[in-house]
Design a protein that fits this description.
homodimer; alpha+beta; Rossmann fold; Dna Ligase, domain 1; D-amino Acid Aminotransferase, Chain A, domain 1; 5-stranded parallel sheet; 11 helices; 21 strands; about 25% helix; about 30% strand; ATP-grasp_carboxylate-amine (chains A, B); ATP-binding (chains A, B); nucleotide-binding (chains A, B)
Chain lengths: ~400, ~400
């Protein structure tokens, strides 16, 4: 089966494998149906969203060499929906002709945050200053001898996810409870905006970028409240951010979706924060707002099909649905009816049965021809719906 | 479980049942994921599109009383994706408190084309003149004694689908091969446009309508080539068509989606052709073009949730993908890459493994801010992609 013969993608011969059975995989699986692609999913637990959306579901540990290798041998193209995967297995599969997107090399660079930062440095890509430490205990010495000054951001080099593995360190006592392993200490960047650009690249080398999106933070809680497309920034900053995102993609020779998160500093510098080599939260708005959503685009890229238009039909804003503080247990979505009454509102409930504080339970997209109207309705959504327990 | 308590729709307690496992059901199932609704499907064969998109798949004959009744007892809301269902079972389920949408009464009216036509007559709803015959053999007598004149359209009263069970009769020899059973003979209506309006009604009585769409025919082959939204007709005709569609929905006290197909005559009269009480081919464009697509809308209606906006983000045109003449066997979608290069093009491949001439294998939606551009691209799509066999 050659990847040149696109007809195979629409026949039962072709098989797409997805490593990970979570919500991102599920949203990707919906889009495979448009193309009638045969899909297989590998995941350690049966109790995951993708279970009912794929053709075949295989139980196995994503960090286990044999599980990943044996699964990969059964498919033509292999993708991921989570970064923590056995990379040795991916490399062997690539050597044996399986198309792995993102390539294992991209994942090798990204899986370890210290290595990711060094990659930016080596390639003259702008990012916040940092120091790397093999052990967290070395940080104290560095502060003591003047190599590092409070405040800074501690980040675990590996296995951080959604705010875990990240901590603002303002004094010595903040260092006390840190995990011991490899980490980086990053200069704290006061920023005006957090931006993201999704770049998509296929094996033929075609590249497209989505419009720059903006993460709007809660003024006090310092939590992302809204992802807004297009970002409300000037054209020059948007071009600069897009240009840097393109450079990252090119230097990585990445294939598929690459979401590049960046800071816009107060003097309009752009610094790369981190990247995700897969469909990303910052692109969920695209399901409702874009001509080609990020999941369909990822499929087009992996299959070396022509990439679709990344333009927006309408402005889009995404609100994450997270478990409310003080509630744990069987989830209830309070005031769902009220938000469904608002114009252009689409909920995406991920199907997790149990809520707990700040757990990501779903998202809501708000689309409108007028971005200011969308922003007003998004605020109503945010203030109305509550993810609580029974 | 009461249908007043909307919270249940988003918990594992609530179950939605779908009678029929075809492509319409599959597209409906995709949308249930947004709401994390537990779904069960009843279908006689395992080899159907819905198989991999539902939580539970039950084998059973849709015309069998026990199969439908036993299935219906296991769900809270029951819907259909095909009209030929055992209605006695649906009636008993309704008597026992299961919410059946569309109601069995709607299906009773629609299943039989003679009864459907009489319904329009009884309710002063405009439709083409017709005569009903208990046996096709009676048609000849009627022509002989001047009660009926050539040409006319013969339609089987029951079990016609997609052009089957319909024939233009121009002379006595055309009558020779007709099936024997109950039928109607309908006056042939020369028309300017074939239009359709989708009406949606929920149990609380909220009603919305989608914009009028237009079916554009091939000038020679007399086959629908494009479904175009919005229809290129004047406002007055659009209002008249919408008004008549609303009347049908109200008289039927229908719940869920009702697609009303109509003729616009050369003197701008509107005549009802037929209705479908479910998501419909004429609404497929809504997946890409509308704020709320017809499948999500059907779910909102059945669950008595607020109905969503039926407005369009952009103009939408749908092209049906049917098997090319002269090809039967394992399907190949020729020139798929070429159409994916065009702007705003989304294919929907239904996953049928075998093609045969005129078999419906999928559809393609083309969206654009400018309907004239969309129409041009739609024509390129139509002229480029070919559904052939290996």
């Amino acid at each position: 089966m050659s990847n040149k013969d696109s007809k195979n993608y629409f026949s039962s011969d072709f098989k797409l494998g997805i490593l990970g059975g979570g919500q991102l995989g599920k949203m990707l699986l919906y889009e495979t149906r448009k193309f009638d692609i045969y899909t297989k999913v590998l995941e350690a637990s049966e109790d995951v969203p993708s279970k009912i959306a794929c053709d075949e579901f295989i139980l196995g540990d994503l960090m286990d060499f044999d599980a990943v290798y044996n699964f990969g041998k059964q498919v033509d193209v292999l993708t991921i929906e989570i970064e923590n995967i056995n990379l040795d297995a991916l490399e062997k599969l690539e050597d044996e002709g399986v198309k792995v997107y993102p390539p294992s090399k991209t994942l090798r660079t990204i899986q370890n945050k210290a290595r990711q930062k060094l990659f930016y440095l080596d390639n003259n890509l702008p990012t916040a200053e940092f120091s790397r430490f093999a052990y967290a205990s070395e940080i104290k010495d560095s502060v003591d001898n003047g190599g590092l000054a409070f405040p800074f951001v501690w980040k675990a080099a590996q296995f951080g996810y959604d705010g875990q593995g990240v901590k603002v360190v303002r004094n010595f006592s903040d260092l006390d409870d840190l995990p011991k392993g490899e980490c980086i200490a990053e200069k704290m960047i006061p920023f005006k905006n957090e931006l993201a650009v999704i770049v998509v690249r296929n094996p033929s080398g075609d590249v497209v970028t989505y419009p720059v999106v903006e993460m709007e933070f809660h003024p006090e809680a310092n939590q992302v409240e809204y992802v807004i497309c297009p970002a409300r920034i000037n054209e020059e900053v948007a071009q600069k951010a897009t240009e840097i995102a393109l450079q990252v993609s090119e230097k990585m020779q990445h294939i598929g979706i690459l979401a590049v998160e960046m800071f816009q500093t107060h003097d309009d510098k752009i610094l790369i924060n981190e990247v995700a080599p897969r469909p990303h939260n910052s692109g969920h708005y695209s399901i409702e707002a874009s001509y080609t959503n990020q999941f369909e685009q990822h499929i087009r890229a992996m299959l070396d099909l022509p990439l679709g238009s990344t333009a927006s039909k309408v402005a889009g804003i995404m609100v994450n649905l997270v478990g409310a503080e003080g509630y744990s247990g069987d989830v209830v979505y309070e005031n769902m009816e009220a938000i469904l009454k608002l114009e252009g509102v689409t909920p995406h409930i991920y199907g997790k049965k149990q809520t707990r504080p700040f757990r990501k339970m779903g998202h809501v997209t708000i689309v409108n021809k007028d971005i200011a109207v969308a922003r007003r309705i998004a605020q109503q959504v945010k203030e109305t719906i509550k993810v609580i327990s029974k």
